Description:
Layout: E1 5-12, H1 21-24, H2 32-40, H3 44-63, E2 74-76, E3 82-84, E4 89-96, E5 99-106, E6 110-116, H4 131-139, H5 143-161, E7 174-175, E8 180-183, E9 186-192, E10 199-205, E11 211-216
Parallel strand pairs: 1-11
Antiparallel strand pairs: 1-5, 2-3, 4-5, 6-10, 7-8, 8-9, 9-10
Amino acid sequence: MKEKDCCIYYISISEFDGNNNRLEEILDIYPDFVTTDYRLIKNDKKRRQFILGKFLLREAVIDNSLSLCMLKSIELNEFGKPYFTDSNIHFNISHSSDLVVCAISKDMIVGIDIEERRVINIGYFHSCFSRKELEEIYESGDIYSGFFRYWTIKESILKATGTGLSFPLNDLYINYEKRTCIINDIKWYINEIDILDNYACHLSTNEKPSYLKIRKKVLFF
């Protein structure tokens, strides 16, 4: 993997029935807290999303000729964002409905968010957007596409910064024309990721990616 390259992997959870013990063995190469978190998940679909995220990260490490030992080094920051300790490799995972995605990069901080486009009560989320953003959402040809476009942008930025929703969404000013956002004097670059027509997905990085690769993964056992 070259500097400022970013690879994005995705997989469908419908390919996994949730009873594959061999897939669960992947957790053995992660820190103990990852297995503990997995065991605490009661919802079957969320368990599949969780473990396939770990599968994708393992595949990303292998594909980019990195050491699997890195996975044992994962720790969480104060807001719960996982990261590799003492490494210039950055990653982030997201999932929604049937899809799980994982982004990995060298020397470039990444945050990724994916959401299935669906009918929701947008009024419930008005406080998360500026007046201008709301105008653009409601004036777009499809208000749900407009909503999830801005939502995944904001989520991806906050996931990249590592603060998550502890930072108010309505305090993020998105310059959609320039595909940028500035937080605490740091410019974040916004990249739309096309995976499936009924999903919105955005990647945010602290530098412009020199190369973006998107690759579908399938289970091989």
